[in-house]
UniProtKB/TrEMBL annotation:
This is 5-methyltetrahydropteroyltriglutamate--homocysteine S-methyltransferase. Keywords: Methyltransferase, Transferase. The keyword NADP does not apply. One of its GO terms (biological process) is methylation. It is an enzyme of class 2 (transferase). Residues 14-363 form the Cobalamin-independent methionine synthase MetE C-terminal/archaeal domain. It comes from Halobacillus seohaensis.
C-alpha cells in the first residue's frame, strides 16, 4: 500500500463495516436476557480483533473497529454525552422509500462530556491495532446534535448557548481520545446536505433561519470544537447524504457551500461522496485554496456490490487533479458499509472486494 506519513491515506475508508452474524445474534440474546453485557462485549472484542486483521490483509493503513459495538453511527455516541438521552420516536427516518427504526436523541439537560463509554472502545481498538497501522475512530459531528437533535427549549432557549456548551463538550472529547492514544479522528456529518438541494433549503427556511446564518453556525460548531486539538492529531470530516440499507436521503452537488467546506473549515481532510450523479460534478474542487487540505474522493460505492471499472475511477481522479494537486487527493468508498447495524445490501466478501479495489487503484495511481 502507498504509505504517507499522516492520515488520511491514499487508499482509505470511511469506517463502518457489515456486522458479523455472530454479533447480531449475540445482541438479540442480550436483549432477551440470555447472555450478560460482559458476554456480549467479549464477543464484540473477538469480532473486532478479526476485523482488524481483515483490514490489514486488505491493505488498509487506517484501521477502525467497524462500528461493531454500535447500532447507529451517531446516536450511540451522542447518547453518551452528559445531558443527552435516546428515545423511541414516533417514526423512523425516511431513506428514499425505506424507513429506519424509530429512534432519536434529545437534549434534556446541560450538555457536557465526562467518562464517555466510547473511550474504552477506542482504547481496545488501539491495543489491538499495533504500531504498523493507525487506529482511526469516528464520531458524529457536533452539528448532528446541534441541527438534528430534539432540544428542550427550557434547557436551551437560545441556540448560541447550546452551541457554546456543545463545542466545549467536543473539545473535552477530542482531548480525551487523544489522551487515550487517538491520532486519527473523523467527524461524520449529514447536516451539510441541507445546502445541496431545494428540498434542504426549504428545511432551513422551515426552521426560521437563513442559509448563510446556518452555514456560519455549522462552521462555528466544527472550528470551535477542534480549535485546541494537538498538532499531531489528524481530524477529518466525512460529508454524507445518508446511508441506510443501500439507500440515501439527499442529493445535490457541493457548489452552494464549496468555498466554506474547502477553505473555512479547519479540518485536515474531507471525505467527499462522489460515487454517482447524486453528488454532482468535480468542478467545485476548483475552490480549494488550502495546500494543506487532503480531499478523499469517495468514487467507489459502498451501497452495491458491483466493482467499478478501474480506468473510469482513474480518469475521475485525473479530472480532480485538474483542480488541485494530485498529492492532495486520496481515494475511498463514498461511505461506510453499515452506518447502522442493519448494513448495506451486499455480502461481507463483496465488502472486502470493494476495499481491495480501493487499495489496488490507489497503489496504481500514486506509486
Amino acid at each position: 500500500m502507498v504509505h504517507t506519513k499522516r492520515a488520511p491515506f491514499k487508499g482509505d475508508h470511511v469506517g463502518s463495516f457489515l456486522r458479523p452474524e455472530r454479533i447480531k445474534q449475540a445482541r438479540l440474546q442480550k436483549e432477551k436476557g440470555k447472555i450478560s453485557a460482559v458476554e456480549l462485549r467479549n464477543i464484540e472484542d473477538e469480532e473486532i480483533i478479526n476485523l482488524v486483521e481483515k483490514q490489514k490483509q486488505a491493505g488498509l493503513q487506517s484501521i477502525t473497529d467497524g462500528d461493531l459495538r454500535r447500532a447507529w453511527w451517531h446516536f450511540d455516541f451522542l447518547e453518551g454525552l452528559v445531558g443527552v438521552e435516546g428515545f423511541e420516536a414516533d417514526q423512523g427516518i425516511q431513506f428514499n422509500g425505506v424507513e429506519t427504526k424509530a429512534h432519536s436523541v434529545r437534549v434534556v439537560d446541560k450538555v457536557d462530556f465526562n467518562d464517555h463509554p466510547m473511550l474504552e472502545d477506542y482504547k481496545f481498538l488501539h491495543s489491538v491495532v499495533g504500531d504498523d497501522h493507525v487506529a482511526k475512530f469516528t464520531i458524529p459531528s457536533p452539528n448532528m446534535l446541534f441541527f438534528r437533535g430534539d432540544v428542550d427549549k427550557e434547557v436551551y432557549p437560545e441556540e448560541e448557548v447550546l452551541l457554546k456548551d456543545l463545542t466545549q463538550a467536543y473539545k473535552k472529547a477530542i482531548q480525551a481520545f487523544y489522551d487515550a492514544g487517538c491520532r486519527y479522528l473523523q467527524l461524520d456529518d449529514t447536516s451539510w446536505a441541507v445546502f445541496f438541494s431545494e428540498k434542504g433549503l426549504k428545511m432551513i427556511e422551515e426552521r426560521g433561519q437563513m442559509p448563510d446564518q446556518l452555514r456560519r453556525l455549522f462552521v462555528q460548531a466544527i472550528n470551535e470544537s477542534i480549535a485546541d486539538r494537538p498538532e499531531d492529531m489528524t481530524i477529518t470530516m466525512h460529508i454524507c447524504r445518508g446511508n441506510f440499507r443501500s439507500t440515501y436521503t439527499s442529493s445535490g452537488g457541493y457548489d452552494a457551500v464549496s468555498e466554506t467546506l474547502f477553505n473555512e473549515l479547519k479540518v485536515d481532510g474531507l471525505f467527499l461522496e462522489y460515487d454517482d450523479e447524486r453528488s454532482g460534478g468535480l468542478e467545485p474542487l476548483r475552490h480549494v485554496k488550502r495546500s494543506d487540505l487532503k480531499v478523499v474522493l469517495g468514487l467507489v460505492t459502498s451501497k452495491f456490490p458491483e466493482l467499478e471499472n478501474k480506468e473510469n475511477i482513474k480518469a475521475r481522479i485525473a479530472e480532480a487533479a485538474e483542480y488541485l494537486p494530485e498529492e492532495q487527493l486520496c481515494l475511498s468508498p463514498q461511505c461506510g458499509f453499515a452506518s447502522t447495524e442493519e448494513g448495506n445490501i451486499l455480502t461481507e466478501e463483496e465488502q472486502w472486494a470493494k476495499i481491495r479495489h480501493v487499495v489496488e487503484i490507489a497503489e496504481e495511481v500514486w506509486n
